[in-house]
Amino acid sequence: MEGDIHGLDADLQAKTASLKLAHTRLENRTNRPGMDLCRDEVQYGLVNEVHQLEATIMALKQKLSEAQ
């Protein structure tokens, strides 16, 4: 059981790092100097990626709290 908890914790940290990267990419794309704000396929993909990572992190946190 402790191995599962450590595994969930490691997965949670990995997903959190991925979420930070996705947020940074989205922020950089949104705040490009000299460029108009465009809502294209890439923008929607980044937003979708952020939402999926947030949902995954919430599920991992719930599993971790249940395991503890």
Automatic annotation (TrEMBL):
Known InterPro entries for this protein?
Answer: Tektin-like, Tektins
Q: List membrane-spanning regions.
A: none
GO terms for biological process, alphabetical: cilium assembly; cilium movement involved in cell motility
**Entries under Pfam families matching the protein:** Tektin
- State the superkingdom: Eukaryota
**Keyword terms:** Cell projection, Cilium, Cytoplasm, Flagellum
- What GO CC annotations are associated with the protein? axoneme; microtubule cytoskeleton; nucleus
Annotated family: Belongs to the tektin family.
Protein name, please? Answer: Tektin
> Organism, per UniProt?
Dissostichus mawsoni
Per the UniProt record, the lineage of the source organism begins with: Eukaryota, Metazoa, Chordata, Craniata, Vertebrata
